[in-house]
Write a structure and sequence with these properties.
This protein is of the alpha/beta class.
């Protein structure tokens, strides 16, 4: 039976770059999740009788909110819900299901790379019919509705058995529990030369994949071990756990340190990789070399034609503004478009839909292509394996040859996590006040060429997104970027991106932080990071 429940609004339901993220106890407040889900439905039109996809990364509170969302979808008039078995759908797999089954949209439950557990992080985001995150005009409408909402609709029915595939009816809506892996694995097999990768692995090439007790475990187990023939145990931590085993499911050199040390050992496997909480990010480490996400984007783009799905070449490359310019030089050599967007995968959607870009990437370990409308961690790993299988060279060899051809962008991101919000906002405000006076100033050997607050004019829908990050560009191609992240759940995360372009191949063997030392010092001098935040060093360096 459908019913309408009276509620009162919460004032803190503004979605960030990828949905609404808060601590679990916040979502457990009376009607908190219901309010936000109803605000989503109230901001949409034309979904009566249509299909909605629902799934999540398996983190704590995932199953409870899926049951809420299913019942509310029925009461609001959807005709069908597709939900992953066990409540599981990686973010890229959810995007694929939306696209494959021509769903109206989807609700994805995740807080991405953030920790899970009873007092940790949870998130809800809405994806539109192209499979990608809702654009700002939709998220703005959701937030506006959340501030005045006075009721929500739900169905008084028993919970769905999420662990058994099959269909059942509730209040006139069909709920179908689907295999969360099958459609995605089929898509990967259509893009990559699985036979070539199987031959590589059967010849003794050793792969290790750390699923970080998160959602890509079942996907990697099926594809890497079962379909590609890697030995059992090649995929580690493959069972998704509500608290990610007590670890932080962020595939970086801090939280995936054990994998890094394995790959740097004398007896290292040939290729190592990891993915994050919801499966949309990746870490790539060859024997003896960490491939930065910015370099990975450039190297994947330069070699994508070696995979069947991209044999005809790329239409263009898109990257987020903080991502290094390494991909720009690949685009220039290939004679294709390069697009610089704000941070947030939703900004790539228009470019992909219009056929202007084929491969996209963010420095925050996200890469993907036009096969879905989300970044896709396992996709990036499989493309790397396809390239390695065809070139028959190591990841280290491929990287060194790439730098010799295009030059090397030394690049690093310094994260200052859970900084006092007022202090972080004050730092950015102070930087904005300096923008007009910085050009022409010298800091040692570094001279500022230009500085601005990045704004993006979408070439497809002509929307404008302002205040996307402070850029300070120096003569010779170096730069520093400052940005407050929208993906955390408490305090503010200040991200500082430092980049130096080095064309001389004789100088491509430097240690990254050493190569960037003068820029790191200048970033602190200009922004007053230590003074304003009280932090003497970053929480995480990637």
């Amino acid at each position: 039976m459908k019913r309408t429940v009276t509620t009162t609004p919460y004032g803190d339901q503004k979605p960030g770059t990828s949905g609404l993220r808060k601590k679990v106890p916040v979502f457990q407040q009376k009607n908190y999740a219901e309010n936000f889900i109803q605000s989503i439905f109230d901001s949409l039109e034309g979904f009566q009788g249509e299909t909605l996809v629902i799934g999540g990364d398996g983190r704590y509170y995932n199953r409870e909110v899926i049951q809420i969302a299913i019942k509310m979808a029925a009461a609001n008039g959807f005709g069908r819900v597709l939900v992953g078995r066990g409540g599981i759908l990686s973010t890229p797999a959810a995007s694929n299901v939306i696209r494959k089954y021509k769903a109206f949209g989807g609700i994805v439950l995740s807080a991405s790379h953030n920790p899970g557990g009873p007092t940790e992080d949870f998130g809800i985001k809405y994806n539109i019919g192209n499979g990608g995150p809702a654009p700002e005009k939709v998220t703005d409408a959701i937030y506006a509705r959340s501030k005045v909402i006075d009721s929500y609709k739900t169905s008084d029915v028993a919970d769905i058995n999420l662990d058994a595939e099959g269909s059942q009816e509730i209040d006139g809506m069909t709920v179908t529990v689907i295999d969360p892996v099958a459609d995605y694995a089929e898509l990967m097999e259509s893009l990559f030369d699985f036979a070539a990768i199987r031959k590589l692995i059967s010849g003794g090439f050793r792969v290790v994949f750390d699923a970080m007790s998160a959602v890509t475990g079942p996907y990697a187990k099926e594809i890497i071990e079962k379909r590609l023939g890697a030995p059992k145990g090649s995929v580690m931590n493959f069972i998704p756990l509500p608290d990610f085993g007590g670890h932080h499911p962020d595939p970086n050199l801090v939280h995936a340190r054990a994998l890094y040390e394995t790959m740097m050992a004398p007896d290292a496997p040939d290729f190592g990789a990891a993915s994050d909480g919801d499966g949309d990010r990746n870490l790539v480490i060859g024997r003896g070399i960490f491939i930065t996400p910015s370099d990975s984007l450039a190297m994947l783009a330069a070699n994508a034609h070696l995979a069947p799905g991209y044999a005809k070449g790329l239409a263009g490359i898109a990257r987020s503004m903080p991502t290094s310019g390494a991909a720009d030089r690949v685009a220039e050599k290939l004679g294709i478009g390069i697009y610089e967007t704000p941070t947030g995968w939703k900004f790539f959607g228009n470019l992909l839909d219009e056929g202007m870009a084929t491969i996209c990437g963010e420095e925050s370990a996200g890469t993907g292509s036009n096969h879905v409308r989300e970044k896709d961690g396992l996709w990036a790993v499989l493309l790397w394996l396809n390239i390695l299988a065809v070139r028959k060279e190591s990841a280290l060899d491929i990287a060194q040859k790439h730098w010799a051809t295009y030059g090397r962008n030394y690049y690093s991101r310094h994260d200052y996590e859970e900084v006092d919000s007022d202090a972080a906002n004050g730092l950015i405000a102070n930087l904005r006040d300096q923008l007009a006076s910085l050009p022409g100033k010298s800091f040692g050997a570094l001279k500022v060429a230009t500085s601005d607050d990045f704004a993006y004019n979408d070439p497809v829908d002509h929307s404008v997104s302002k205040n996307q990050g402070i850029r300070i560009l120096f003569e010779g191609g170096s730069r520093v970027v400052f940005r407050l992240s929208g993906t955390g759940t408490s305090g503010a995360t200040l991200r500082v991106y430092i980049e130096r372009f080095e064309p001389d191949a004789a100088r491509h063997g430097m240690e990254t932080q050493g190569a960037l030392a003068d820029l790191i010092a200048v970033a602190d001098e200009i922004a007053g990071i230590k003074t304003r935040t009280g932090r003497t060093e970053p929480s995480v360096i990637t």
